[in-house]
Amino acid sequence: MHAFSAAQFVRSAGRPADLPPEAGAEVVFAGRSNVGKSSAINALAGRKRLAHTSKTPGRTQTINFYALGDAAQLVDLPGYGYARVPRELREEWRTLVDAYLRSRRSLAAVVLVMDARHPLTALDEQLLGWLGEVPALALLSKADKLSRREQAAALESTRLRLAARRPPTEARLFSSLTRQGVDEVRTLLERWLGRARK
Length: 198
Fold this sequence. Notes:
By secondary structure, the protein is an alpha/beta fold. It has a single domain, classed as 3-Layer(aba) Sandwich (Rossmann fold), CATH 3.40.50.300. The chain is built from five helices and seven strands; from the N terminus they run E-E-H-E-E-H-E-H-E-H-E-H. The chain has helices at residues 37-45, 87-103, 122-131, 148-162, 182-197, and strands at residues 8-13, 25-31, 63-67, 72-76, 107-115, 136-141, 170-173. The protein has a seven-stranded mixed sheet, with helices on both faces. Strand 6, helix 4 (148-162) and strand 7 (170-173) form a beta-alpha-beta unit. The protein is globular.
């Protein structure tokens, strides 16, 4: 039994004032709209509908919190970079996410979910630069869409581009469909959460 299997939805926050009190170490899932953040959370928890998924980009419009027992939480941020979302709403999301990232002292790590076919866009790079010293994992999702050779090339290219970041940024191939990388990523995140609780 792993910690993620106990994940329970806690609440959604649509405004900075709605953010819940800190309750232990937090691992944040961030990334462009429709890259598979919610699907990754479901795969790691071994559940189908813990986090709501949609084929429509921009559907997650709040910060969603999932408790892992009493000492840790997973946090699902709204996706960024979807042009069809009205500018006013994009600005509200940016303000909300900015308030969250600036205020949480319990932030243990960020999982930056990226489509393995289009890793490290300009917006992804911008987020990594903003994180500073926070540990990060570059999760190359939808890896099942690539051949093995393409997967290896995408992973190597991403690792090379991340090599200069401090602290070092991990990169992993991931597929919520085939479960590629699920156990490996879960183990890594559990280790980071355990370190943050000490």
